[in-house]
Design a protein that fits this description.
This protein has a two-stranded antiparallel sheet. It has one domain: Recoverin, domain 1. Helix 3 crosses helix 6. The chain contains seven helices and two strands, in the order ααβααααβα. Helix content is 56%, strand content 3%. The protein is an all-alpha fold. The N terminus and C terminus are likely disordered.
């Protein structure tokens, strides 16, 4: 019994992000999922497809926090707290429903050189700025 409790505690700590991914690794995975035409630029449509179309499990045009955190954790192995933080950051209208309108504003924030395209480097810099674990440790 004395051995079980410490083992359980260690298991809980490492389960937060059992893959141990860094933010740069998570960013690379997200970019790979978004940039379907592999041109190195991320469009508003590609962001919408990744975070609204692919995350809207019931097809009602609204990604709930439950849908988002489930899919984000599945795809990027982040912890629940970080997934919820990302949802709240992306949900600009704070209505609990992530929609295409929310993501258009983020595309503008990502596009730091105002050329109407978002590069992988711009997306990674944005993710480092907005992710709940800004220090690059993923969900750890």
């Amino acid at each position: 019994m004395k051995f079980s409790l410490p083992l359980l505690c260690v298991g809980i700590v490492f389960a937060a992000n059992h893959h141990g991914l860094t933010l740069d690794q998570i960013s690379t995975m997200i970019i790979g999922n978004m940039d379907k035409n592999a041109d190195g630029n991320i469009t508003v449509e590609e962001i919408d497809t990744e975070f609204v179309t692919n995350y809207d499990h019931d097809g009602d045009g609204c990604v709930t926090m439950h849908e988002f955190t489930h899919q984000w954790n599945l795809d990027y192995h982040d912890d629940h707290h970080a997934s919820e933080g990302m949802f709240h950051h992306l949900d600009i209208t704070t209505d609990g429903c992530l929609k295409k309108d929310d993501l258009g504003m983020h595309h503008m924030a990502m596009d730091t050189d105002n050329d109407n395209t978002v590069t992988g480097a711009e997306f990674t810099a944005w993710l480092h700025h907005v992710h709940p674990d800004r220090f690059g440790h993923g969900g750890r």
